[in-house]
Amino acid sequence: MEYNNLTVRELEEKLREISAQITNIRNKIKELKRERTILIAELKELRTERREKIDEIKELRESIKSINEKRRELVSELRNLREEKKKKIEEYRELVNLARTKKDQIQAVGKELRLPLSVIRREIERLEWVQQTQILSPQEENRIIRKIQQLEELLEKALKLKKEKQEFLEIKAMLTSLRLQINDLKKKINELSDKISSITEKRNNLFQKYNELKNRIDELNNMINEKQERINQINNEIEKLIEELSKLREEYQKVQEEIENRKLAVIVEQKRKLVEEKLKKGEKRLTLEELKLLYGGIEDLKE
């Protein structure tokens, strides 16, 4: 910029304007650096928190993985118990039907039998003794033989009834055992179901915490990116302001030099007139400084 058309006063005013601009830019740089320092500290805290949250979420993943494996084992065990209970119930129903059949058979045979097993045996033995020890008519012997045959048939039915009763009792014992086993399985299934519910709730709580941590990490990432972008923006602003400050300092120096030159020129002109007056008065001898005033430039006088 040329300053030839400006007066010294205008140049001094220009110098004050440039000085004010320099002060203003310095303050802006100072304020930006202060903001950057705060942002860097906040950024460090955010990154520390993010690192901690990432560590937490890694631990949560391991916990969730462990719980899922445990839950799969429990679910598999529960499935096996339910399958076992189903088989036991089917077996129980089959035995109940068999017990009913046995009971019907026992009742049917029982109606035909009016005598106890021991009585039938004694009667058979008595008739056989009579047959063997007494002289009987053919009609009487045939009657005894038919009677023995009838009693033997009853005996066979009585023995069968005894066997059926024994089998019925065994079935009842098996039913009691199966009922106890089924109840025990029901208890185990309920306990296991409660355990699975508890572990599922725990897993859901971990998932909730996992999602909260994930959301917080996303939030921290956004905050970190925003602050980093602002820091980058501040760095660019500071760089531009420093460049502008450098130009203003150069301009300040030029204006200051121009003012000094202008003031020096006035002094030089005044002194030159005095030297010229000495010459007009006939004084021939001039000092080196007076010669510089007459024949030299401003730069020579500066030296």
What does this structure look like?
This protein is mainly α and 303 residues long. The chain has one domain (8-280): Helix Hairpins (Orthogonal Bundle). It is built from 5 helices and no strands. Helix 1 packs antiparallel against helix 3 (138-280) and helix 2 runs antiparallel to helix 3 (138-280). It is rod-shaped, with a radius of gyration of 62 Å. The chain starts with 7 loop residues before the first helix and ends with a helix. The relative contact order is 0.12. The model has no long low-confidence stretch (mean pLDDT 86).
Gross CATH architecture: Orthogonal Bundle
Distance between the termini: 26 Å
Please estimate the helix content.
Answer: over 70%
- Mean pLDDT metric: 86
Residue runs with pLDDT of under 50 for 5 or more positions: none
CATH topology description: Helix Hairpins
CATH level 1 name: Mainly Alpha
Computed Rg: 62 Å
| Overall shape | rod-shaped
Strand-residue proportion? under 5%
Main sheet overview: none
Number of beta strands: 0
The tally of domains stands at: 1
Number of helices: 5
Structural class by sheet pairing and helices: mainly alpha
Features:
rod-shaped, 303 residues, mainly alpha, 5 helices, Helix Hairpins
Topology:
Layout: H1 8-112, H2 117-133, H3 138-280, H4 288-295, H5 298-302
Helix pairs in contact: 1-3, 2-3
Condensed summary:
The chain has 303 residues and is an all-alpha fold. The protein is built from five helices and no strands.
